[in-house]
């Protein structure tokens, strides 16, 4: 007779995984490279804006980045702006002591550079109307942020593992689509940070699979099947996300092929044995969801290609 796996309490998992956190913190610190936001901003290109200093008002022709990347840069920056909410959420999950607390503060300090460099670049180069940007920031931050799965440690860390990889890809592709070599270099630098952050959370949950595989599977299934980007509360997010997807910066195919599927393979989710009944059911739900996501991605690609063909035909 087989014995069903015994679930562990949050406290038991927290304590059992702390050595992994310490190990991953040390790995991260050894691999992270110091960099400075000011080195990616062409300050000599800047001009005083209208207002208190009576400069020049922003005009659409001031922007040198592509229209597609302009929307993505706005969404990316507003997402980074919500850092106070992310810090509070992560601290609620990880606490403020020991290796967990150190990571929370280190991660926050590194993430803060992303908002600094992107905003300075956008302002100095006049890539986006600064009035629109500031009003959007005020509106977005007043909505607040809540971790999708509350203070649940496994689900919280799982969510951030996927989210960090998604953000890395979005940042990198935004830079490539910008048409500005400096913007591409800047966004590649930011994306490099996001990749290291993803590795931390991915390895943390990898250790959770060893400590309690059934609980980890259920957490992963819950997160993947309800996943939304942290910027989903931005005003007009749906319209903006469609524009970003149509530009190929971040779409369902990228989400399936380059974010969710690779991490699931890394964890060996579909190869695990000895799961309890609830975990087996959760894994089946996850497999069904992934198949549906793949099909939806293919359908979107086909429709995008059809729209592009019709547009080309009209212009010929």
TrEMBL record:
One of its GO terms (cellular component) is cytosol. Gene3D superfamilies: Ribonucleotide Reductase, subunit A. It comes from the Bacteria. Binds 2 iron ions per subunit. Keywords: Fatty acid biosynthesis, Fatty acid metabolism, Iron, Lipid biosynthesis, Lipid metabolism, Metal-binding, Oxidoreductase. Fe cation 2 binds at residues 111, 164, 194, 197. GO terms for molecular function: metal ion binding; stearoyl-[ACP] desaturase activity. Fe cation 1 binds at residues 80, 111, 114, 194. Its cofactor is Fe cation; Fe(2+). Pfam families: FA_desaturase_2 (PF03405). GO terms for biological process: fatty acid biosynthetic process. Homodimer. Belongs to the fatty acid desaturase type 2 family. This is Acyl-ACP desaturase. It comes from Actinomadura barringtoniae.
């Amino acid at each position: 007779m087989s014995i069903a796996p015994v679930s562990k309490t949050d406290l038991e998992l927290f304590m059992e995984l702390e050595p992994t956190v310490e190990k991953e913190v040390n790995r991260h610190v050894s691999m992270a490279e110091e960099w400075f936001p000011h080195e990616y901003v062409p300050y000599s290109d800047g001009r005083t804006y209208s207002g208190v200093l009576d400069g020049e008002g922003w005009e659409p022709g001031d922007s040198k980045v592509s229209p597609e990347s302009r929307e993505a840069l706005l969404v990316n920056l507003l997402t980074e702006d919500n850092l106070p909410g992310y810090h509070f959420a992560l601290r609620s999950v990880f606490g403020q002591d020991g290796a967990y607390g150190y990571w929370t503060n280190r991660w926050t300090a590194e993430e803060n550079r992303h908002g600094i460099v992107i905003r300075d670049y956008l302002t100095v180069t006049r890539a986006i109307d600064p009035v629109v940007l500031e009003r959007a920031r005020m509106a977005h931050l007043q909505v607040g942020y809540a971790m999708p799965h509350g203070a649940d440690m496994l689900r919280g860390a799982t969510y951030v593992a996927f989210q960090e990889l998604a953000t890395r890809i979005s940042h990198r592709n935004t830079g490539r689509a910008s048409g500005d070599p400096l913007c591409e270099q800047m966004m590649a630098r930011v994306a490099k940070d996001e990749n290291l952050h993803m590795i931390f959370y991915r390895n943390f949950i990898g250790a959770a699979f060893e400590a309690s595989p059934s609980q980890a599977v259920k957490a992963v299934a819950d997160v993947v099947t309800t996943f939304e980007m942290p910027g989903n509360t931005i005003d007009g997010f749906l319209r903006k996300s469609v524009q970003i997807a149509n530009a190929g910066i971040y779409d369902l195919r990228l989400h399936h092929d380059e974010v969710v599927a690779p991490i699931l393979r890394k964890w060996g989710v579909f190869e695990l044995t000895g799961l309890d009944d609830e975990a087996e059911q959760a894994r089946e739900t996850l497999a069904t969801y992934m198949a549906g996501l793949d099909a939806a991605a293919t359908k979107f690609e086909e429709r995008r290609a059809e729209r592009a063909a019709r547009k080309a035909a009209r212009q010929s």
